[in-house]
Amino acid sequence: MQERDEHQSLLDGWNSPPNLVTYTRIVLVLVFLWADISAGPWGSGKPWLRFTAAILFIVAASTDKLDGWMARTYNQVTELGKLMDPIADKLLICSALVVASAFQEISWWVTGLFLVREVGITVMRFFVIDSGGKVIAAAKAGKYKTLTQCIGLGMLLMPVWALTPTRMVPAALPALGAGAPLWWTIYYWATYILLFAALALCLYSGYIYVRNVWRARKSA
Q1: pTM of the model
Q2: Residues 41, 99 contacting (CB under 8 angstroms)
Q3: Maximum distance among all alpha carbons in the chain?
Q4: At what angle do helices 17-39 and 79-102 cross, to 10 degrees?
Q5: What is 17-219's CATH number?
Q6: What is the mean pLDDT of residues 85-102?
Q7: I need a labelling partner for 119 at 20 to 30 A (CA). Which of 14, 98, 127, 206 fits?
Q8: CA 58, CA 154: separation in Å to the nearest integer?
Q9: CB count, 10 Å around CB of 42?
Q10: What are 184-216's pLDDT values in tens digits?
Q11: How many CB atoms lie within 10 A of CB 212?
């Protein structure tokens, strides 16, 4: 693939097809938030709306691969795209985490660690740009983190409790085994295991990013 100009402006290619896909993902975040919040904790108020929120989340998360594939395939990788793509991911994931914690579906300390890392890296990206440096693309650990987060949150958002005869809404993880079918308990345990794995990858990839920025500035 042809190399990009090292002096490329941040706004160069702002209206390229891959970037338009990224903008669409950001709009989907707003619609997802409305559906998720309106559905109530675990979707207990309106299960169909929680299911809609889950589908919107999955669609918005899946299109991350689309804009990245388009940018690489058609040589439309831009500095703005490398900046906005992870921001779109962070808006989607962080908003889902905050709502989940507000609904007591995830502990606040877990969401807090995610937010500290995500906001910190985003601020650092802007600092690098403001200092005249190039945006550093996400490392493999960060991409695995995003994938794990998306799968875990997508599973959490799905109102699978509505598929049980009793339609018992889960109040907390320790209570899942009380009267719940075995498959339901396994499903939610797997969900939380994925989210904790994502947290570990989140912190590790944050360290990798800070290290790469430090090395790039030293060698500049």
Answers
A1: 0.78
A2: no
A3: 63
A4: 10
A5: 1.20.120.1760
A6: 87
A7: 14
A8: 6
A9: 21
A10: 788 888 999 999 999 999 888 888 888 877 777
A11: 13
